[in-house]
Amino acid sequence: MINLPLGSLGSNFQDSTINEKSILHKLELAEENKYTDIKQAMQYAKEALSDAKLLNNKNLIGESNLALGKCYDFLGGSIEALDHLTEAQEIFTELQDKIKIAQTYKQIVSIYYYSQDYTTAMNYYQRVYKCGVELKY
After folding, report:
1. Which pLDDT does position 54 carry in this prediction?
2. Which of 25, 34, 48, 56 is most buried, taking the most CB atoms under 10 A from its CB?
3. pLDDT of 55-81, one tens digit each?
4. Any idea what DSSP says for residue 2?
5. SS3 for 106?
6. What are the two backbone dihedrals, phi and then psi, of residue 16, each rounded to the nearest 5 degrees?
7. Other beta carbons within 10 Å of 86
């Protein structure tokens, strides 16, 4: 646990330490705000990523990159979204987290599909399917 201020969220938390719980809370807030206040959602995701890097928590760095990728995708920033999603995918692959790998690939499918790059979208969809088969979903 690191005792550091939480930036703009400091007033929303009783405890002013950066820990897994505070990062997960920011990621929850990012998800909750994604459709109502995308700028705020992005801010929560960026803060979560920064905090996760301070803790050097690979899983939370991956989760934060996934959240940022979703936000950028929502805003139409495909390049930025793919950058964050690729980083998340690499981390989840290293951690062998098939569910998160599949979720990340699914988000990448969306970007390529709506960019009308159907061949690449299908390639990533097949990866999602493979993860599902391996997990027996």
Report:
1. 97
2. 48
3. 999 999 999 999 999 999 999 999 999
4. B
5. helix
6. -95, 35
7. 14
